[in-house]
Amino acid sequence: MKKRVDELLATVDSVAQGKLLCPVTVKGDDAIGLIGQRLEKVFKQFAESMSSISRSASTLSSVSTSLSNASESIATNAQHNSSQSIQVSQSSEDISSGVRNVAVAIQEMSETANDIAANTRNATKVAQEAADVAQSTNRSRPFKAIVVVLPNQLQKYAQR
């Protein structure tokens, strides 16, 4: 009996040291044999539980790695999208600035055209006054013809 109890204790010690699949060699229908059978069941269930926990830990590690990779990918995509948004914003600002510059140029051209028209009207008026003076003094005919024709030509030019 002591030998059988020592065998059970040796098996329990082996399991305690991590040898979960250590067989229980004590058999029989007496109390020590029944204890051996029950311990063998407990050890098998414990080994199966540890194996299941190990598989679950491996699966969890794999899923964790996948989630980490997905998170890195999302972060990379977010940085890329942010960079593109900044570029689009800068392009929009550049376009807006260009439109403002074109509007200023058009305004300046309009003011220049108005100045040219005003100067042409003034020149026409001066030429007309000169023609009137020439007609009233009735000086030489060739000069009179030039002075009369000049205002008409300037007026035609101003209308273009």
TrEMBL record:
Residues 71-93 are annotated as: Disordered. Residues 82-93 have a biased composition (Low complexity). Coiled coil: none annotated. This is Methyl-accepting chemotaxis protein 4. It comes from Granulosicoccus antarcticus IMCC3135. The lineage of its organism: Bacteria, Pseudomonadati, Pseudomonadota, Gammaproteobacteria, Chromatiales.
